Each structure stands twice: as structure tokens, then as C-alpha cells.
Model the fold of this input.
Amino acid sequence: MLTQIYNGHVLTPEGWINSGSIVIEDNRIKEVSKSSRMLEGMDKAIDAHGMHVVPGGIDLHCHGGGGCDFQECSREAFETAARTHLRHGTTAIYATLSSSTLDMMERACETCDAIMNEPNCTIMGMHMEGPYFNPSKAGAQMPEVIRIPDPDEYKHIVEDFDCMRRWSSAPELPGAVEMGQYITGKGIVAAIGHTAAEYPQVKAAWDAGYTLATHFYNGMPGFHNIREFKHAGTVESVYLLQDMAVEVIADGIHVPSTLLNLVYHIKGVEHTALCTDALAVTDSDSEHAFDPRVIIEDGVCKLSDRSALAGSIATMDRLIKTMVRVVDVPLQDAVRMASETPARIMGIYDRKGSLQRGKDADILLLDSDINLRGVYSMGEFVKGSDRNAPAEIVQR
Done:
């Protein structure tokens, strides 16, 4: 099966191709070239009408969507959440569990193991957000399950399941440095989060293999005073470690546009990834979050006592549009932070994250107003992603 998307403004690692073309063979990119016309021998052809043709988004941190949370641990919940975000441009997703009991972690991993290698599955593996966090920075995490790193527990999860890809912990906890050394030795990305760590602890974490800051600016302190003396917080410490990557919830609420701009200018495209941190209520008919403590207000999820934000209702297309329209970042940089950088962080850039020959055909079509007009996942057009698309954009 040969499919061509032609007459598009195509983003490649070398830059934009005006009037460009992508040929897809089955589920991979066969060719990226300059072509404003349909080629002979195509089974399907789509005229992009000059729209932006960019790589699919990769969400490093997502709890659910479509009314389902990954903590439900069921195949239906996993598939519903992944499908919901796929329609909004997330063509690869890391299922994220908030701080949980060991039993819940095991059941989620069992489900993820069972489905992640099925054909065209967009779930790339598990991200454990906790439970090894600083209680003072718990935020919306369930306080009753937060605990210090337990080697028997985390080694069991890593060694007995195939799906573990990332683990977020507070580096100042006893045993956290040793945990970082262990999981990174197994190829798992170690991230710092929900932490009160200052520079010595963040540097020790970096030296132990922690390479990423979880939802940067959220669940961590910045500059502060302890009595009369000033202290650099986790935020400044991460900035000082120039090669430590960050993920930001780019909904314009969790991190305001001024700080998103600061992250972009200091960390740069190569060390900044966009993530949703989306909850089950995202793109759902329900007004109630999976967690009964959470309310939806002001376009974001909050604890009902309004003491903390609790996650987002953002989707990948919203992240990209916010970075372009609100933060004033060039489109190609916003897209790279949603695709290339997450792929590099997670070690999957050999097959995802850019439009190149031989890579998975994960492709988004964006119009001139940065509205999503179509999604292709492994070469297949995603139904429901074209709600605003003119008829001629849909495969025929």
C-alpha cells in the first residue's frame, strides 16, 4: 500500500520543504521530497493544500483521557485514553501512573505488557510518577501511598515487567540516588519530581543518572529564603545543569507564558519537551475527574480545596498551538519540542520524532492557524482527527 501526502509545507530535520511530499509504504515513510503533485502508482493520495505537515507528538507524561485513567489498569482504559489523545495528535504516549500501591503498579504493568507490542499500538511503555516523593511537595499525589524508595519493590517492577520506560522520584529521599543508578542501568529514564531538592541533591541525582525534570516548575521550589538567607531551589538547580532536560505542561496555565518563554530561551529546543499531564476528564463528556478530590475549573484540574493544580485537560494539538500563539515560539521549534526532543529523551528517535525515510509514518496536518486537520498513525488515517478538515483532506 502506497500513500502520498503532497503539496504540503513539510518539516524535516533539515528544515521546511515548501510544496513537499511524503510517500508512505504500509506503516513507514518511504520518501520525503519536493513534490506539489500526485505521483503515479499511488494507492491513495492526499492534497495537503499547503498545510503544515509535521511529525506526530510524543507525550512523555499522560494519566488518561476520554473518561479513563491508566490507574484503572484495564485494557479498555488504556486503549480509550490512548485513542483519545491520538485523535489530538499524540502518536506515541507513555502511560503514567500517579503514586500508587504496589498492587496497582503491578496490574497496570501487566496490562501495558499485554498491549504495547500489538500492531499500531501507540502506548510506548509505563511512566511511574511516584510513589517515591517528598510529602511536602505531594501536590495532587495521594499522600497515603507516598513512601521512600524500596529496592525490593522497584527492582521487582523493573525486572518482572517489560514495559517500564521512565520513573520519577524525589532525589533527596534516602535511597533515591541508588535507585537512579539501578534503573538507568536497566535503560529506564530517571526523572526528578515532586521534590524540595536544592543544588547539591539535584547534582547528586544528575551524577547518578537522573536526566529529566518532571513537569518543570510544578511540584518543586524555586528561589526562596530560609530565615534571612537565600537559597536556590530545584528550578535554579536544573537550569544550572545545562544538559538536564525538562518537560513542561504547555497549556499556558500550569506554567504561564512568561516562564514557558524563559524555559525555551534557557533550556532550548534540544532540552525541552512538551507534555500534557492530562487526566481522565480530558476530551470527556464527564465533568468529574477520576480522582474524587479533583475539580475542573478555569480550564485546568485542581484539588477541590484549590491548594494545588492536579493535572491538565490539555491535548498535544493545544500544546503546540499555545507555544506558537501565546508564547510566540516558531512553529518548527514547538513541533520539535513535541516530537523530536521527547523521542531523543526516551531513546526512540531511531524510529519516531521526525519525518525521515524509514521512520514510522506518524504525521500531523496543521492549518495556517495551527489547528489540527488530520492525524496519521503508522500510516493509517485516524478517524475523528479530521473534525475541522475539508473533505478533500480525507483519504479517498
